[in-house]
Design goal:
The structure holds two protein chains of two kinds.
Chain A (H helix, E strand, L loop, with lengths): L3 E2 L4 E5 L4 E3 L2 E2 L6 E8 L6 E7 L7 E2 L2 E6 L4 E6 L8 E9 L6 E2 L3 E6 L1
Chain B lengths: L3 E3 L3 E4 L5 E7 L5 E8 L3 E8 L6 E2 L7 E6 L2 E6 L8 E8 L12 E2 L3 E5 L1
Parallel strand pairs in B: 2-11
Antiparallel strand pairs in B: 1-3, 3-8, 4-5, 4-9, 5-6, 7-8, 9-10, 9-11
């Protein structure tokens, strides 16, 4: 069963608009971590933000925030004031308790239009 | 600056050839991983290693093997390359000491794009 689901294969957004990238996950663990990575056309995976399942506050890192809704098992990435350089693939991932590996979603290709 | 280095960015091989993909990390991480990335499928785990000479199968190990003789180096081996192994291969490393203040995120190399003809 798919543990991480990203339902938006592609998104197109105007520059300076906010954008939300969807991510839902499936786990029976109470303790887990959620990650978002950015992959520009160069191919390198860039870690953006992390949310622990017990964290009460939504994680934020600069223009990135993670909208964590535990009951809905969703961990959406919000990018405020999008920039042309935000155009990239974005991956949501999860690490379950006791595991070292990350399980990734299918990815969303975000295109920022000028 | 922390770094994961993959030996080749682009490779073209023929069906049946033996292929080595090398990965080196300078962060003294115990964990190392090989993922495969395909459009629409995201990243799928091939193999990972918790320590020198230790390896664990991931979700898609068939057709691959790995070697970890030194802590900093993790090699992916395609014993007899096939066209369905044409893909982007990503190496990553992490520290197992994840806790309240350590996320345990993976640090990735730049990827190796393999084409098998």
């Amino acid at each position: 069963a798919q543990k991480i689901t990203q339902t938006q294969p592609g998104m197109f957004v105007q520059e300076k608009e906010a954008v939300t990238l969807d991510c839902t996950y499936d786990t029976s663990d109470q303790s887990y971590g959620l990650f978002w990575y950015k992959q520009p056309s160069s191919g390198e995976m860039i870690f953006l933000i992390y949310q622990g399942s017990y964290d009460e506050q939504n994680a934020t890192e600069g223009r990135y925030s993670l909208n964590f809704q535990k009951a809905r098992k969703s961990a959406n990435l919000v990018i405020s004031a999008s920039q042309l350089g935000d155009s990239a693939m974005y991956f949501c991932a999860m690490r379950e308790r006791g595991a070292q590996k990350l399980v990734f979603g299918q990815g969303t290709r975000l295109t920022i239009n000028p | 600056d922390v770094k994961v280095t993959q030996s080749s960015r682009y490779l073209v091989k023929r069906t049946g050839e033996k292929v080595f993909l090398e990965c080196v990390q300078d962060m003294d991480h115990e964990n190392m991983f090989w993922y495969r990335q395909d459009p629409g499928l995201g990243l799928r785990l091939i193999y990972f290693s918790y320590d020198v000479k230790m390896k664990e199968k991931g979700d898609i190990p068939e057709g691959y093997s790995v070697s970890r003789e030194k802590k900093e180096r993790f090699s992916l081996i395609l014993e007899s390359a096939s066209t369905n192994q044409t893909s982007m291969y990503l190496c990553a490393s992490s520290s197992p000491r994840a806790g309240a203040f350590v996320t345990g995120e993976l640090f990735f190399g730049e990827g190796s794009r393999l084409t098998v003809l």
